[in-house]
Automatic annotation (TrEMBL):
Bilayer-spanning residue ranges: 38-57, 69-86, 98-121
Record's protein name: diguanylate cyclase
Organism encoding this protein: Rheinheimera nanhaiensis E407-8
Gene Ontology molecular function: diguanylate cyclase activity
CDD domains: GGDEF
GO cellular component, as recorded: plasma membrane
Pfam family, one: GGDEF
Length: 299
């Protein structure tokens, strides 16, 4: 996850460095006799805790809107607590109020931003938990979960897609699929090893589960292909979701040694799951050829 957020790490370091330089240029160092050990301990501990929050977010969260709120909220807290700690070592001119404002204002703003991010995180977890509960209930009678990615496999995809096709045809609603294909995954495994490939698949499945809606069903259709069933979704909505996934996947594959991925969308017009899934091959081939710029009903 760190590689996805290297710009955030750089921004954090630059912001703290700017705060330090501003404090040194506007104030004078206090004598050691003026230090308050209790205040330094309390404010230092608060800063370390805020830095810990920031580190956990960067190390465990995929890139996305919720992560942005969590990151910037935590960064504002770290910046405010950092300046507050510097205040114990540096004395500022009484007429210079900027440092006082910078110490006080970012903290409440950061709390609000962080709270908003936590609400989004809670919603994500509720959606993921609903999927996990549904998988657990289904798994009691059907061994259809892929053991590596913990996603549904091809058999379940056929079953749920056939059910959704019949339901949507009877109610004249639109059903779409998103198809994600890992380019030359066999070559990646040969070059980096099976363990690296398994780790990559696990990270990819976590990203897909967190980015799709709770009503969507994401399955591992083949060793290097994933298919998401999007109920009650128009082609325009599916195209937006596909573009969003491409942006998130760009963060995942930003490392030079990671395989590239192709995302394609299609509107389901076939009357059987088997026929619809056969069309996913065409959708992926067109996407790789650069011709699948928009969803096409005839796919």
């Amino acid at each position: 996850m760190w590689r996805q957020h290297r710009y955030k790490i750089l921004l954090s370091l630059i912001l703290l460095l700017c705060g330090l330089l501003l404090a040194l240029n506007t104030g004078a160092a206090k004598h050691s006799s003026e230090f308050d050990a209790l205040d330094i301990l309390g404010e230092g501990t608060t800063l370390l805790v805020a830095c810990g929050w920031l580190g956990l977010i960067i190390s465990s969260r995929p890139a996305g809107r919720v992560t942005e709120w969590l990151y910037y909220g935590s960064l504002l807290l770290v910046f405010s607590y950092f300046l507050d700690l510097l205040d114990e070592f540096i004395r500022y001119p009484e007429q210079f109020r900027l440092m006082s404002w910078l110490e006080s204002l970012p903290a409440p703003v950061g709390m609000l931003v962080l709270t908003y991010g936590l609400v989004g995180w809670h919603r994500e977890q509720r959606a993921i938990n609903r999927q996990l509960r549904g998988r657990e209930l289904f798994l009691r009678d059907h061994q259809l979960i892929d053991p590596l990615t913990q996603l549904y496999g091809a058999d379940y995809l056929h079953a749920v897609l056939q059910r959704e096709i019949e339901l949507h045809l009877s109610q004249h609603r639109t059903l779409c699929l998103l198809v994600l294909d890992i380019d030359d995954f066999a070559g990646f495994n040969r070059h980096h090893g099976i363990a690296a490939g398994d780790t990559y698949l696990s990270r990819l499945s976590e990203l897909l589960s967190s980015q799709l809606r709770h009503s969507d069903v994401i399955c591992r259709y083949a060793g290097d292909r994933f298919v998401a069933v999007l109920p009650n979704t128009t082609p325009q909505q599916a195209q937006i979701m596909a573009q969003h996934l491409r942006q998130q996947i760009t963060q995942l594959v930003s490392a030079g040694d990671a395989p590239q991925l192709t995302v394609a969308g299609m509107t389901v017009q076939q009357h059987s799951a088997q026929a619809a899934l056969q069309q996913t091959d065409i959708a992926i081939k067109q996407a790789k050829a650069g011709s699948a710029l928009k969803l096409r009903p005839e796919l």
